[in-house]
Amino acid sequence: MKKNTRYLLQSLFAFTVITILFSSCIKDTLKRTRTYTMYTPVYKERAVVLNSINGNASEAIDQAGKIYVKDNFIYLNEVNKGIHVIDNSNPASPQRVAFLSIPGNTDIAIKGHTLYADMYSDLVAVDITDIHNTKITSTISNFFPGRAQFYGHATNFNEMIVVDWIKKDTTVEINDYVTPPVPGTCNGCYFATLSSSADAIKSSSTGTAGSMAGMVLMKDHLYAITEMHSLGIVDITNETTPKLDTSFFAGFDLQTIFPFEDKLFLGSAIGMFMFDVSDPVHPVAVGEFSHGRACDPVITDGHYAYVTLHAGDGCGGSSNELDVIDVNDLKNSKLVKTYPLTKPTGLSKDGDLLFICDGTDVKVYNAANPADLQLLQKITSKDPYDVISGDKKAMVVCPDGLYQYDYSDVSNIKQLSFFSIKN
Q1: Do 225 and 231 form a contact (C-beta atoms < 8 A)?
Q2: pTM of the model as a whole
């Protein structure tokens, strides 16, 4: 009996110790902290925003996005805030002349004297005849439905618009059984901190967009990626009053659009989709090219398509490369060659010269033989995002500013100017 009692006491003691240790482990596992960047939206009445498009030309540039070039002007997107207008009559000394305050803006296109821009879920047409006194002439509401869900959360989006965000780092105590708020749901507006990255130049009725464009013009129609899988078509015959024609499924995970003659080349996270738009409002799918999952800008010269793939940035995958694709027969496009790269993004082509933003450089290739690209030069930059080339000049967007180069002598490329983004 004494032996049984002693055994029982030993077992009880062991159980107690294990329980204490286990409880301690649970406590250590559950009780911890996590730091978030909290963004609180700042709203303004929609009517006020629409009537306040003419902003301050000296507005600070915090995050540059896409670029658009027309005549002697550069239109530089300030991500989700608007468009900086830069007079580039003298590329050695570009001068900012205006700022179009368009909340939620990421894309730009211009026909004649009308600029088209996304304003969150809406498409707005802006009369830029007098760049210092612009006005919105027309709006197509909910043209980009995928963006309304995020930015129209806490109030009536038809009456109020998010014009800014108040940023504040906050540390909260959490446990493993509490799921952190998901970016975009704005449940209390907590967002996990994320790192953000952003052919010839000639005078015409329309301008030139970079390879990262999600909205382009072809003759009297505007084509735009309205949400991840859809392409919207807008009739701009009357440029000041665009009219929605249609929207249709154009492929999965669409990211960029590149127009060439009567064809559209859509870059996506899974491949490239090609459409014939000889009939502008009835695009016909004429081919596609699949690749591993990655972010995917694309350009073409009509004979070959050049596709840069890079991993991360929400696209997934691990590929960092350039795919050269023979598109002479769109229905039977075929891979010519794959070139390994560091982390390529935007690209541009001028004749036989191919420019690729890759890592910390803009790489310049001789592309006379697409199956055997020859690296000619590297332009050292700070994480270049996109490039537009033409007329022996290249414009490169980087996190710190807009660079311009003269490549009339490829062996001796000269920097013409630097337009600082961070003021």
Answers
A1: yes
A2: 0.78
